[in-house]
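Table 4 source record.
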Amino acid sequence: MKHLVYFFAALFLFSGIAEARPNFLLIVGDDCTYNDLPLYGGENAKTPHLDAMAARGLTFNQAYLATAMCQPCRAELYTGQYPMSNGCAWNHSASRPETRSLPHFLRPLGYKVGIAGKVHVKPADAFPFDQVEGFDKSCVREPTQPHDLAPALEYMKGDEPFCLVICLVESHVPWVMGDASQYPKKNIQLPPNLADTPVTREHFSNYLAEITYMDSQVGDILEALETSGKRDDTLVMFTSEQGSQFPGCKWTNWNTGVHTALIAEWPGRTPKGKRTDALVQYADITPTFVDLAGGEPEPQFDGSSFSPVLEGEDDAHRQFAYGLHNNLPEGPRYPIRSITNGKFRLIENLLPEELYIEKHLMGGGRFNNPYWATWMGDDPVKNPDSYESIKRYMRRPAVQLYHTTEDPYEMENLAEDSGYAEVRSQLRGALQEWMKEEADPGAKVDTVEALQAARKGGHLYGKAD
């Protein structure tokens, strides 16, 4: 009889928690530089649905991911672990076989956990999402397949709380979606980290059209949520992933690579139309979902819940956000580590004597953009800025320090400025401490041997070993 009393008491407690717990809808863009969005100061793109979402919710000014590549940043997002912990520290590799992710954490709490669109994480046992159809899974298809909201809407139905991740494939190359005529090439305001050539302007116009197309998809998804009748009970988050496939964004640790857009809307819970400077990282999002679902922090988590920030109870979260780049297999080895405190960013290029080369951006091929060749062939007399843009991208000093809040494109390196010696020292010490905690030996990680071992599930480095 006593066991029955305990059972019904536990059942009552669980049901009470369930009533207060939100559903989770996480919308992930693809290769969209955060400050190309008007919400973050972008001067070109039109994004009415994201703007409206921000007006209803909370915008994070300081959200980051550790690695500006599709697979590692998604592994971080779904596991709550940094790349060296979950094992996915290179693009097109794999997490450790024993890795656990959102489905493992939320299903015991009564949630169904699904993913639609681009997945790009493995092994499957580490990321056992329910597969939800309706969105294109290939980020390089030309054109993108039309989306069908019916499967997502069906997944939202029922009494069981849901966590649904919808991964869009815009604004990943090829930039063929949307209406580029909205963005006449001559009227575009190019960011200062890009060389101004006619071909660059043409492709930037196409990229902006993709951003607007992505925004329309966000609007359609939110309309489906409204139709489900569960909007008031759902925490919606949008994030733009890493930077775009332009030099200095994706595949780098500059601000335009690892800084991401993050908007949260939970009716009646998130502050309305507000912004926060709280520093958060992708590794914090899964712990936040687990916390709001009524779970306890997992021992494996590197991140932590920022639910007090979401609900307007706090405006601070972490002290530092960390970055890591291993260039294989995207080009020759070029390991990078970085850290930001939200104001300053320190970047350490661990093999500064090497040239930085990224094969997709700088090479040929069907889905690789030809603007780089126009930078290389530009007249150095008429347009010396092209040469400076190339040199900035390919020849990097051992240490770079930027006052990012004043220089968001990080064009002025302050590493040798004695006036910033204390900042440099503090950030360098904290970065070295993080690498030690992650069992990250630095340049040794960006080797063929380490990458091949990771692909086979036998990781050579990282604290999980």
